[in-house]
Each structure stands twice: as structure tokens, then as C-alpha cells.
Amino acid sequence: MQVRESLEREVETCLERQLPDVDLREVSLIGPDHSGTLRVVVDHPDGVDHGICEQVTRALQAVGINDRYGIEVWSPGPEPPLRTREHFEQARGHRVALRIDEDRRRRSREGVLEAVTSDGVRLETSSGVIDVAFTAIRRARDKDGGQKC
Predict the structure, then answer these.
(1) Cα–Cα dist 80/67, whole Å
(2) In the beta sheet, which residues pair with residue 60?
(3) Which of helix, strand or coil describes residue 25?
(4) Cross-strand partners of 82
(5) Residue 120's pLDDT band (boundaries 50, 70, 90)?
(6) Beta carbons of 51 and 44 less than 8 angstroms apart
(7) Numbered ranges of CATH 3.30.300.70 in the chain
(8) Edge-first strand listing for the sheet containing 128-133
(9) Above 50 in pLDDT, residue 149?
């Protein structure tokens, strides 16, 4: 996991410096840690089109990421990933899906995001309210795609 976290920080730093209006939504590595394909999901206030994807690809190439990985740049699609506290704040009141580490197992949880706390989120699920620490969240998606419930 350390390689993937380091790679996410590298991509985040690159985009913050070169394309500050681009919102990094998700970084995933498909294949081996040292030679796979880097999939980067981004958003932009004006939407994501081919031009934005090309700019992101060129920015990542400029820092040499393409020397180690293939690069794919995607728009967030109808269920945007939630990566940062700000993303979770924007999704408050929306139906979200989480992949979490719970009791040493990966589990899926889905519900309406009621609150974002200092250390996690509170979901209203079909079986009641649950609190999930940010440290336990492995993947999160806004199932409403930006639409309020």
C-alpha cells in the first residue's frame, strides 16, 4: 500500500502545482506496483472534457510518471469518488457507498451521509446510524452523483 499512497501524493503535488483548478478525485494503480497503469480520476469546475484529460496527462508526463506507468485520465462519471474531507463535505445529504476495513475484513456500507466529523463520517443506513473513521475508508463514491436526496 505504501507505493500507492506515495504515488497518490506525487500526482496530487503535480496537479496542485501545474493545474490548480483540477480536482484530483481518485488515483488507482492497475497491475504491479512498479509497472502498472495509473488511473487518475479528475474533476474541473467547467467539467472534464478531452482537453482537461490531455492537460492532466501532459502534466503527469512532465514529471516523469509515464516513465514508470501507463497513464489513463478519467472524468468522475455519475458516481464521483470521494477522496478528501472536502469531497465528503460536498456529499453531505447524498447517498454514498463506502468500502471500509472493519474487524480485519473489507466491507461495503451504503447510506445517506449525515455528517462529516473531525475523524470520520456518519451514515444513516437501512440498519441505523453508523460512524466510520476516515482511516477505515478504503474507497468512497457519491451514489447520487452530485444530486441531493
Answers:
(1) 28
(2) none
(3) strand
(4) none
(5) very high
(6) no
(7) 2-74
(8) 128-133, 120-125, 105-116, 95-102, 137-142
(9) no
Predicted local confidence at residue 1, as pLDDT: 55
Candidates 3.40.50.920, 3.30.300.70, 3.40.50.620, 3.40.50.1820; correct CATH number of 2-74?
Answer: 3.30.300.70
For residue 8, give the nearest of 98, 62, 69, 92 by alpha carbon. 69
CATH pick for 85-142 out of 3.40.50.300, 2.30.30.100, 3.30.200.20, 3.40.50.2000: 2.30.30.100
- Return the C-alpha cell found at 76: 468522475
Question: How many angstroms separate the CA atoms of 31 and 35, rounded?
Answer: 7
Q: What would the pLDDT profile of 46-92 be if each residue is shown by its tens digit?
A: 999 999 999 999 999 999 999 999 999 999 999 999 999 999 999 99
29: pLDDT strictly greater than 80: yes
The angle that helices 2-18 and 50-62 make with each other, rounded to 10 degrees, is 110
